[in-house]
């Protein structure tokens, strides 16, 4: 039985295909269209999912959709009627998308796919919950979902056992921890639904002391937090519930100045504000999780929703709450809900026993050696062929130790927003200049943003002060931990200002070539760790195809591209057609 899950029309559209309960294909639409956070119907992702299994839409038994559009439209009508006439302009501008897309999902699926079967609509936070619990390694677990907003709900906790999920309590719009964080993201001059992670990365540069950070004390006036983690926002500080902007002037006045323009310098107060909102998020989440543990009695917890991408807090959960084990899927945001919708249909609605655990994130397209070589030859690209995996890992380890920046393209593309060793840029973490090299020559991004260390799971506890055993969520780069003090000066390129690192643990069972490469580098450096950052061009998603990868290398300071067994040196190929400023990475 094949079940198709779909998420679209808000942000990060995606598709997931299940075969008898097993995730056999999953991908975000943005990777195909090259439009970051693409919101459109995921036609390309769906077509690829079907083609990967050699089936057609006629083979699909049911489609699961990640939300209930009518319920969401009810909320839209309610909020705008409540705030009328101030909400009039925003309401009118939103209507075309609803009438042309969001309220016509079954017709769009039928028209674009030729599908005539059942479409089952799953509430948004239930899709979030299912996306994490039903593909987790846990038979039972507490579930916490936190995001901006679904239909009405913004925050839930509940319990999952077997194939069943019950969401016990929720908090509803306009009160939203995710939207509070996004409002501060907008205030600091970063893009909403895209750059919240920049605020997270900026926060350690600010004052992380609740007693002395004055902006923390100010922001606490904006939110009323109860002991069980429930909360309410003072809406006089916000505009998002009726306008297309987020911070009200009252919030700007509270924080001591107008919204920062994107090109303005970051002042100390901006850093303290980032620290303040991070501290508040941690306050609320710790109370919610502690209460969820009390109510459910579970030792395991799974997280989902966009707030579950806050890896700085994720690394503190097992130390600050009573839970013993944690799991988060690689794409806990809206992109991941297509997996949740499909899994909920198959397991919970249709009643099939769970038979699958998402052990790795490699669910996307793969390109064969023949396809890659055909492309290289057709484009007259100069390359070298490496005879086997050993020559590949040993050669690339030499290049990395020589401080070459390597574009690494291997196997199936990752699921989710993190580069996890299939479409990654790799470099030497021991070089004190590597962070500057990557920021200036390759990434062209803010200097405060850290780079992630990739470490083999069996070495993680040597270098990082991790939870024990090391949670599998670290495999998906979703946990930040302190780097042990004796190693910080030895791996400066991946050591953040507060001595932490957002590590990716790598298990040989998931990605043997990547694992062996890290070990090979360790034999040269004495430290088996690599810098791993996303392989993408500024303003575009992570690369998917060999063409995307070559284009990215030739437009940046990447020295070498490794496409499966083929090694392409930038210096061997003409760059006359490439403009490094135009194709700077993000």
Mind telling me the C-alpha Rg?
23 Å
**Mean pLDDT metric:** 95
Instruction: Supply the CATH superfamily name of the largest domain.
Output: Carbamoyltransferase, C-terminal domain
Q: How much helicity do the residues have?
A: 25-40%
Order of strands across the biggest sheet?
13-21-20-14-15-19-16-18-17
The profile of the biggest β sheet is: 9 strands, mixed
Strand content: 15-25%
Helix and strand content put the structural class at alpha/beta
Broad CATH class of the largest domain? Alpha Beta
Task: Identify the CATH architecture of the largest domain.
Answer: Alpha-Beta Complex
Shape: globular
Write the layout of secondary structure elements.
Blueprint: E1 2-7, E2 14-19, E3 22-28, H1 30-33, H2 43-52, E4 60-65, H3 69-83, H4 88-102, H5 105-113, E5 119-121, H6 124-133, E6 140-146, E7 153-161, E8 164-172, H7 177-187, H8 196-202, H9 214-219, E9 223-225, E10 231-233, H10 249-255, H11 268-296, E11 300-304, H12 311-314, H13 317-320, E12 325-328, H14 337-349, H15 369-378, E13 384-385, H16 389-401, E14 406-409, E15 423-427, H17 434-443, E16 452-456, H18 460-463, E17 479-482, H19 485-488, E18 500-506, H20 512-525, E19 529-534, H21 546-554, E20 560-563, E21 566-569
Parallel strand pairs: 1-4, 4-5, 6-11, 11-12, 14-20, 16-18
Antiparallel strand pairs: 1-2, 2-3, 6-7, 7-8, 9-10, 13-21, 14-15, 15-19, 16-19, 17-18, 20-21
Helix pairs in contact: 3-4, 6-14, 7-11, 16-20
């Amino acid at each position: 039985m094949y079940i198709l899950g779909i998420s679209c029309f808000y942000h990060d559209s995606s598709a997931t295909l299940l075969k008898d309960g097993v995730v056999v294909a999953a991908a975000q639409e943005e990777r195909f269209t090259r439009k970051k956070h693409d919101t459109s119907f995921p036609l390309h992702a769906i077509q690829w999912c079907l083609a990967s299994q050699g089936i057609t839409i006629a083979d699909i038994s049911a489609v699961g959709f990640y939300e209930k559009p009518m319920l969401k439209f009810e909320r839209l009508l309610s909020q705008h009627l409540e705030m009328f006439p101030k909400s009039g302009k925003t309401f009118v501008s939103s209507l075309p998308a609803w009438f042309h897309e969001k309220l016509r999902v079954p017709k769009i699926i039928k028209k674009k796919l030729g599908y005539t079967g059942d479409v089952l609509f799953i509430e948004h936070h239930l899709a979030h919950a299912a996306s994490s619990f039903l593909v987790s390694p846990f038979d039972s677990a507490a579930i916490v979902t936190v995001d901006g907003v679904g239909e009405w709900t913004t925050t839930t906790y509940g319990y999952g056992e077997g194939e069943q999920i019950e969401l016990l309590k929720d908090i509803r719009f306009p009160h939203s921890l995710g939207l509070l964080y996004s409002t501060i993201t907008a205030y600091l001059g970063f893009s909403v639904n895209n750059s919240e992670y920049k605020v997270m990365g900026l926060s350690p540069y600010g004052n992380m002391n609740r007693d002395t950070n004055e902006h923390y004390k100010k922001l606490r006036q904006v939110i009323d937090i109860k002991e069980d983690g429930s909360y309410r926002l003072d809406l006089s500080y916000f505009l998002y519930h009726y306008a297309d902007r987020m911070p009200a002037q009252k919030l700007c006045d509270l924080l001591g100045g107008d919204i920062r323009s994107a090109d303005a310098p970051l002042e100390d107060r901006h850093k303290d504000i980032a620290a303040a909102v991070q501290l508040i998020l941690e306050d609320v989440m710790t109370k919610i999780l502690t209460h969820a543990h009390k109510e459910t009695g579970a030792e395991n917890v799974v997280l989902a929703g966009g707030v579950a991408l806050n890896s700085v807090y994720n690394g503190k959960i097992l130390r600050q709450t009573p839970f013993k084990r944690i799991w988060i899927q690689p794409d806990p945001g809206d992109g991941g809900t297509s997996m949740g919708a499909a899994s909920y249909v198959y397991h919970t609605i249709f009643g099939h026993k769970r038979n699958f655990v998402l052990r790795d994130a490699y669910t996307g397209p793969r390109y064969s050696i023949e396809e890659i070589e055909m492309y290289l030859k057709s484009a007259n690209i100069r390359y070298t062929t490496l005879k086997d995996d050993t020559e590949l890992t040993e050669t690339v380890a030499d290049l990395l130790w020589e401080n070459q920046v390597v574009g690494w393209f291997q196997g199936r593309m990752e699921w989710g927003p993190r580069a996890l060793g299939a479409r990654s840029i790799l470099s030497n973490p021991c070089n004190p200049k590597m962070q500057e090299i990557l920021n200036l020559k390759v990434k062209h991004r803010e200097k405060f943003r850290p780079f992630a260390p990739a470490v083999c799971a069996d070495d993680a506890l040597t270098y990082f002060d991790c939870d024990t055993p090391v949670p599998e969520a670290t495999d998906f780069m979703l946990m930040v931990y302190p780097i042990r003090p004796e190693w910080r000066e030895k791996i400066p390129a991946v050591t953040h200002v507060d001595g932490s690192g957002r590590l990716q643990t790598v298990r040989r069972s998931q990605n043997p070539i990547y694992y062996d490469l890290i070990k090979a580098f360790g034999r040269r450096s004495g430290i088996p760790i690599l810098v791993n950052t996303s392989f993408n061009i500024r303003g575009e998603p992570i690369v998917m195809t060999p063409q995307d990868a070559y284009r990215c290398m030739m437009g940046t300071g990447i020295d070498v591209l490794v496409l499966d067994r083929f090694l392409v040196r930038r210096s061997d190929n003409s760059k006359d057609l490439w403009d490094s400023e135009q194709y700077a990475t993000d």
